[in-house]
From TrEMBL, chains A, B:
Originating species: Oxobacter pfennigii
Name of the protein in its database record: Putative RNA-binding protein
Pfam family, one: CooT
Amino acid sequence: MCEANVYLLDEDGMPRLYLESVDKIIPEGDEIFLENIFYQRKQIKARIKEMALVEHKIILEKLIK
Amino acid sequence: MCEANVYLLDEDGMPRLYLESVDKIIPEGDEIFLENIFYQRKQIKARIKEMALVEHKIILEKLIK
């Protein structure tokens, strides 16, 4: 399976696991909707900073308003 | 390998293959930088509309300015 782990950068810029085995990623305005292969869903105000699919890694950065 | 094919929506909203076997995706402002496993690189003014990683599919939508 080719899902990826989604990490969120913390205040120190360190990636923290936010949701594992993510299949679907849908950005909508300033939010990102995530769904993993276990049908867990999360929604967060963030932007995609970087994706490295071969490493199964997606990095998100929180949007501060 | 867990790369994905990147499609760009055409004027009729139909997905057209833009770059195959993409590993790295880095959004920068209103541009997206792509690199595939063959080290081919492309850069486009677009936004990520939807990703379905288990299907190896990423859909981009061109930004019209």
